[in-house]
Amino acid sequence: MKKIFFKVLPLFLVAIILAAFLSVSANEEDFENTHTNTGDQRVDIVSIAKTQVGYMEGDNNDTKYGTWYGLPNQPWCAMFVSWCAREAEVPLDILRNCAIAAPDPGYFDIPFYDGEVYTPKQGDLFFTKTFSHVGLVDYVDGEYFYTVEGNTNDSGSSMGIGVFTLRRTLKDYYFGVPDYNYISKNHTCEKDVFVEYKEEHPHNAVYRCSVCAKLIDDLTDAGKVQGCVSCSIPEKPVLSFYNDTFLGDWAVTFDWKESDNATYYDFVLEAMSQNGEWQEYESALGVLGGFTWQLPEGRYRAQLTAFNARYKDEENPDGLYAQSGYKEFSIGKVAYTITYNLNDGSESKSVQTKYQGLPTMLSTEEPLREGYAFMGWSRDELAKRAEYVLGDLFSEDASVVLYAVWRDENSTLLLGDANEDEVVNIKDVTAIQKHLAGISFLSSEAESIADTDMNGAVNIKDATAIQKHLAGISTGLPIGEFM
After folding, report:
1. What are the phi and psi torsion angles at 295 (to 5°)?
2. How many CB atoms lie within 10 A of CB 387?
3. Given this model, what pLDDT does residue 128 score?
4. Please, is 57 exposed, middle or buried when counting C-beta atoms within 10 Å of its C-beta (0-12, 13-18, 19+)?
5. Are 293 and 269 in contact (CB under 8 A)?
6. Where is 164: in which H helix or E strand?
7. CB of 122 within 8 A of CB of 139?
8. How far apart are CA 439 and CA 69, in angstroms?
9. Which class for 379: exposed (0-12), middle (13-18), buried (19 or more C-beta within 10 A)?
């Protein structure tokens, strides 16, 4: 028996190592800095740190932050903070690069305050009172503060496994306070660094240097701010239309958003005549959109013209107007069907017509099913998530069957609750990580709950999605909601 055990054990360890290696290999590609700096250094450094939540180290402290710093395979909490600072374009004379959490001026070189008397701000650094660990403050809630930190785990260890967001108690920590947005000694004003709003400018946009906060108006003879999007790029009016089934199968609603720059609008609807020529059918001048016409069978095209002296393009060099371009659609000529399968529900529209080129509003009638809540519609009969909700627009020129998606009102299953304790928290991330490493395994039901993107497989991206959800970062997934 002992011989068999010792033969199986090495294979088990190889599986763990291989799983960890594969997850780390994919890890590097999934955690690029996707934040666009705003010039507010406190906001930027934390926002950048949040893009890294869920990053996991490799064997022997192997991280991209240590490699970047030049000290691979070392404890990396301070190097993570340094990396975030450089990505946020915080000058070195405001926050130095540092490889360890230390109070000595030779390291981060910032003042420290005790959490028993000081309330930190977003972007401050927090330190354990033994200076064994450092991270970034996101926000404060009563006696607690929330963090983004590297080289930790769900229990807050200073020798952890990845980038986490955690809750800690104020009085137990020191806080380092960089002098953010201080004018760097090596600073040169850049007019294209940051855009701020100001009433005097026609489009309320004016450049402000992100470091010294100096306004840089730079007005031309034409009264335009150089680089202002509204001044330099002609705005094209956007025309939208759809079949408003609530008002009738052949009712078409036309709409467009009001532009700050346009003085008035000219809307034209043309119909194809029997001899194949386009002829004006309806028009509206000087009005906003949001009106509906019942149209007979035929082919149509519509165009919107917005008049304003600032619009300029090759066809309109004088900037007198801009056009949306013609959009064509048909009524009755080429028709498709949208069929609603209620999936054991009742009391809803069963079939709807969709015309070529004309987006159609889906049914607003909510189906009923005893003991279940209606979530929406999906092309997949077994879907747990809806692709469309009541009143959404369906634009594809094709016939389709949409199935009702239901949620059992008595269900206690929460998406993301991998350890099945009826709450989604950092412990669920750990449960997924242990499952992937082969240390412990999820039940079949827990696997379905842990599969946050519902792609049929549990992987490191599901753990990352839960971490982002806990950090308040939108994932577009219904994590924490009943299934």
Report:
1. -110, 140
2. 15
3. 92
4. buried
5. yes
6. strand 162-164
7. yes
8. 32
9. exposed
Distance between CA atoms of residues 95 and 84, nearest Å: 11
Which tokens in the block code for residue 10? 């090495």
> Are 483 and 384 in contact, with CB atoms under 8 Å apart?
yes
What letter does residue 313 receive in the DSSP assignment?
B
CA dist., res. 118 & res. 121, Å (int): 10
How confident is the model over 297-329, as pLDDT tens digits?
A: 888 888 887 776 455 555 655 556 677 778 888
434 φ, ψ to 5°? Answer: -65, -35
Between the CA of residue 397 and those of 107, 354, 402, what are the distances in Å?
Answer: 63, 8, 15
Amino acid at the residue 146 = Y
Q: Say how far apart CA 130 and CA 113 lie, in whole Å.
A: 14
Region for residue 183 given its phi and psi (left: phi exceeds 0; alpha: psi -120 to 50; beta: otherwise): beta
**Element spanning 468, H or E:** helix 460-470
Statement: the pTM of the whole predicted model exceeds 0.70? no
Contact of 329 with 353, CB cutoff 8 Å: no
Higher-pLDDT residue of 332 and 121 is 121
440: buried, middle or exposed (CB in 10 Å: 19+, 13-18, 0-12)? exposed
Q: Which helix (H) or strand (E) holds 18?
A: helix 2-30
- Say which DSSP state 480 is in: T
- Structure-token match 């242990």, residue found: 434
